[in-house]
Predict the 3D structure of the following.
Amino acid sequence: MAYRVLIVDDSPAMRAFVRRVMEISGFDLAGCLEAANGLEALEVLRNEWVDAILTDINMPEMDGEELLRRLEADEALRQIPVIIISTDGTPVRTECMLQLGAKGYVTKPFRPEVLRAELERSLEVVHG
Amino acid sequence: MADVVLEQALTECTEEVLEQMFFIQPVEEAVPQDPPQNGDASHLSVDVDFSGEPSGRLLLRISKPAARSIAADFLAEEEAVLSDQQVGEVICELANIICGSVLTRVESRTSFRLGSPRLLIQVPEPEMRPSAVRSLALWNGNITIAMTMEPELCPGMTKFAS
C-alpha cells in the first residue's frame, strides 16, 4: 500500500513505533513523513502532499488541536483525513477532536491492528 | 492511607500498556520499592506532571536492564545497538502512556493535560506522600509507579476504575 502518511508526535520513540506498526501492516514506509509538532507538520504540508495524518495532541510549539483547526481552515488541507493518537481517552476530549474534524481517534495503549484498521478505514473513505 | 482504587488502576493500566504496546507481560506484582534515591545508577526515573481535575504527578522507576529490553521490544531493535538516549525516550513514552491511561480510567468525566515526561537526573524530594504506589516484576527487573493526586479521588469516582 503506497500511501503517504505524515506522523506528528514530539516523541521520537512513538514516531518510530507508529512507523513500525505501519510496516507490519503492509504500508510502504517510503512515503512516510514525520514532524515533531503541529508547526513542523504544517511546514511539511507546504511542500508535500500526504494521504493521511496521524497526530498526537499534547505537543510543544503547536498541539494537535490547533493543528486540526489550521487544517480545517485550509480548503486543500482539510481533505486530508486526520487520525488522533492520544493517551487522553476521555469522552470529552474524543468528542472535541472529532467535532474539530478528526476522522478517527485511537487511544494509547492500542494494539497494532487497531491503528491499522483506523488508518485503512480513513483512507477508504477518501480513496474509495 | 493508600488509594485502593488508584492502586488497582495503576496495576491494570501498567499491565495493559506493557502487553499491548511493549509486547511483554509482567511476571507478578512485586513489593513496592523505596522511593528512588539520588545517585542510584541501577535505575532510570521519569516523571510526568498532569493538570486538570485532579492535578498531580506520576513517577516511574525502572531497573536499567528492564528499561533496555522494553526499549528494544518497542523499537524492534537489538538491545546492543540502542543508545542511552533511545532507551530514555522509550521510558518517557512508557510513563506518558501509563499516566494518560490511568487518568482516563479514574477521571473519565473530565479532560486533562499531560506535561512532557522528564528523565530525572536528580530525583526531587517528594513534596507529599504518593496517593498510590505499585510495583511489577518483569523478567529482568522491577518497574515501580507512584502517583500523587491533589485532590485525591473522591469516593464517587470508584465506579470508573473497574
Notes: Confidence is low (pLDDT under 50) at residues 155-162 of chain B.
